[in-house]
Amino acid sequence: MTKEKRKKSWDIWSCHIFCVTLPNVNIITPILTISGSDGIGSSGIQADIKTITSLGGDAMTVITCMALNDGKGMKWHRLHKDVIVDQARTIMDTMHPKAAKIGLIQNPETIKAIRDEVIGCKRIVCAPGIFSSDGSQLIDNESIHAIITHLIPESTLLMLRCNEAEKMLGKKISSDDEMEKAARELHSLGAEWVMLRGGHLVESRLTALLYGEGKAHFFTSYNIEGWKRHGVGSALAAAITTRLGMGDDVPTAINNAHKYVHSRVVYAVSDAKQSLRATDIYNEMMSLVAAHYQKEHSVAFYADKLNITTRYLSKVTDNTVGKSPKQVISDYIINEAKMLLDNSRLTIQEISDKLGFSSQTIFSKFFKEQEKLTPTEYRR
After folding, report:
1. Cα–Cα distance between 350 and 249 in angstroms, integer?
2. Which of 111, 320, 324, 330 could form a disulfide with 282 if both were Cys (CB 3.0 to 4.6 A apart)?
3. H helices within 61-123, ranges in order?
4. Is the model's pLDDT at 280 over the cut of 90?
5. Cα atoms in the Cβ-side hemisphere of radius 13 Å centred on 215
6. Planar angle of CA 121, 245, 47, nearest 5 degrees
7. Is 314 exposed, middle or buried (0-12, 13-18, 19+ CB in 10 A)?
8. For 82-101, what is each residue's pLDDT tens digit?
């Protein structure tokens, strides 16, 4: 074989080897978050990165401002408009994110400029963060007007707390009916879907409303303290954005994001005095309960999934939340049952089936043991 033929043969063989052995590379979905930087990581860009990554997305960030806490209070350092716009332009031109969350932007000119940069993104979640969790107003009225003018018309989903909707619309929201009217009005500003959160309209419950395609759907949560935790709203918005980028429609994205936040944030434990291992096990258990509660109610199932004994799982939940694993699972199922009884037209039998009970009788017995009422009595 001549030198030229040997070279040609080697080229073909090496190309063949390269083509055969090249590993499959899964392309991670790029998700953009535009917001402020919170150094402690409980909200803002840092928290969004955690949420997006946990759900399997590739987090891209644009920092708009930095929160500085000197022990005397929170101070904000705003980045110049050109710096913010350059960040967004670079990411949009090079990474082409599948979805974008727009959070805290504290300047009306920057809001308009950001709109011009991200308008090419098909799925935009606008969660502007007008108020902090302690009720402090974070952006001025001119910026609120800029959000109404430039961001809402481009939004796939607009997410606001009720107090933010009140500020934006200049009217009080004190009933479910007023909540729905507010959502309709916000929808008329151009958003495809509107989600209002934090309606404390009934004692010991928090209400959320999703409005779109001419329909309104209410959600109720009994874990008020959990949903009022600092950073929960931001985590929910980031989770919804990630799921939208992965192809969910809006209602499905919200459902999937809610399950994630419910198990990993609302019911999560972050007490630094407890061991990280026990906390991780508890949080992972809640993720499993959120995924399997409709079919699996046994402690043994979850212990097996966690690769630990039921006895050790009991120790973990007792040390973490002061409850047995059985009660933790029961609490989750009861909250879901109440939500369905309050907000759906499903029959008791249909709810029983949906929650994984073998019969309506067993479901009713379980419900009465937990609530001292039958499902029928509770619904009246």
Report:
1. 25
2. 320
3. 81-94, 108-118
4. no
5. 5
6. 100
7. middle
8. 999 999 999 999 999 999 99
